[in-house]
């Protein structure tokens, strides 16, 4: 699914290290937390997967695609297989839930009938049926993040990357979002969550990849960590 082979990323002629010779394999259908202090390399890890930046060395494969050698014209199609969830929701405040989701699909030239059917389906998946005509300001933070997750699901991705998805939520809503991500993962979708929320990581008891100074210092199939980060 995701394979880093001796990947390094340097910024400014190696004056700053984003990632240093990392090798890791995330299998299809896994649920993985990516943790580490600010500057540890989490953003670089995600940007490389999205092909927003290029590796300085090594090989990166996602869904058997050689990402480093992917041509620019094929990047939009490649990214349609990846759903992104953000900390700040990134919803258009003057558009309804339906309009927010439809806008994301219209730019991909889907038919109106398919857009309507797909939005109904994804809103049911995130437990927001009946909320399609509400505006973001009328929703709770947890509900707004559910809309963000619905948007990530629109193109039926094989991978969802969530960057601090609970950072703006209270503990109860944060736990509900994590439970929803588990539901989605049970559908066979690979989940990669970058987070500082150590309590949730401990509760979830999933695979944890920890970065420090651009290197992987921990890769374990459980959430409990004893050490300096938490």
Please, what is the average pLDDT? 93
Percentage of helical residues? Answer: 25-40%
SS-derived structural category: alpha/beta
Q: Largest beta sheet, briefly?
A: 6 strands, mixed
Q: Can you write the helix and strand succession as a string?
A: EEEHEEHEHHHEHEHEE
Number of helices: 7
Query: Regions with pLDDT < 50 over 5+ consecutive residues?
Result: 225-230
**Looking at the structure, what is the overall shape?**
globular
Percentage beta strand: 25-35%
How many β-strands, per DSSP?
10
Report on the structure:
The longest helix is centred in the last third of the chain and has 15 residues. It contains seven helices and ten strands. With 230 residues, the chain is an alpha/beta fold. Strands 6-7-8-3-9-10 form a six-stranded mixed sheet, sandwiched between helices. It has a four-stranded antiparallel sheet with strand order 2-1-4-5, covered by helices on one side. The relative contact order is 0.19. The protein is globular and about 50 Å long. 31% of the residues lie in helices and 27% in strands.
